[in-house]
Design brief:
It comes from Alkalicoccobacillus murimartini. It is an enzyme of class 2 (transferase). The chain is of the alpha/beta class. The chain has one domain: Rossmann fold, CATH 3.40.50. Helices cover about 30% and strands about 25% of the residues. It has seven helices and ten strands.
């Protein structure tokens, strides 16, 4: 059984003051096996991010099914899941990473990661231990742990974003254009982080503008224009 299966997915947006409905995406079908990495390609405005936000339920899709093989709930349609179920899944099973870092005022890097662990019901002691482990794992300079991340570089913010999401050990991690504003060196670091996550058994779905970045990294690539899989080599 795949970890995630999308069937006949579609999403529209209504512009109330213009009394207009815009069709963002329709007719999407794909599946992702456990431990695999699916890349989604397509031009800007093709609906790539809309798909990820709908899986995470930031958006509520209009049609189709998004089946997720949950440890807690079994095979569940994310379109039909209630709010309590989605809160649980976001805390324990599904993570989301974008190119933007949303931080709480006067909260240090270490505290942000600790908070992510505390949300799962762990003690402060365990949260501190896990936070230190994941920040070390993703090679974020220890000198930054007790500083506020609003002044971090793009690469440092991204590593922190991934650390916050991955410390919960999600079964599925959604990557929404995380490398869009990064330089070449930072992109290489992101690639290394993704490879580490795969080795840890995390299933990933990613949207990237940089096609070369995805080469050899994804197990499958879904083309929004063709609405079909492209051939790609597995990571060795």
């Amino acid at each position: 059984m795949p970890l995630l299966q999308v069937e006949g997915f579609g999403k529209s947006f209504t512009i109330a003051h213009l009394s207009q409905t815009i069709r963002a995406v329709e007719g999407i079908d794909f599946m992702v096996e456990k431990g695999a990495f699916l890349g989604i390609t397509g031009k800007s405005g093709s609906g790539k991010s809309t798909i990820l936000k709908s899986i995470y339920r930031t958006y509520l899709p209009d049609e189709g099914r998004i089946w997720f093989d949950s440890e807690q709930f079994g095979r569940i349609d994310l379109l039909q899941a209630d709010e309590q179920q989605m809160v649980y899944l976001r805390k324990h099973e599904i993570g989301y990473v974008s190119q933007f870092l949303s931080v709480m005022p006067r909260t240090t890097t270490l505290q942000l990661v600790e908070q992510s662990v505390l949300e799962m019901g762990y003690s402060q002691r365990d949260a501190n231990k896990e936070a230190i482990h994941v920040l070390t794992h993703f090679e974020l300079d220890e000198r930054l742990w007790h500083t506020y991340p609003n002044t971090f570089s793009g690469g440092e913010k991204l590593r922190l974003n991934i650390a916050i999401a991955s410390v919960k050990k999600p079964r599925l991690l959604l990557l929404d254009e995380p490398t869009a504003s990064l330089d070449g060196k930072s992109k290489l670091k992101v690639r290394e982080l993704i490879e580490k996550l795969k080795l840890d058994g995390t299933t990933l779905i990613g949207v990237f503008h940089d096609i070369e970045f995805m080469d050899g990294l994804c197990d499958q690539v879904y083309d929004m224009k063709q609405k079909a899989y492209e051939q790609t080599e597995r990571v060795r």
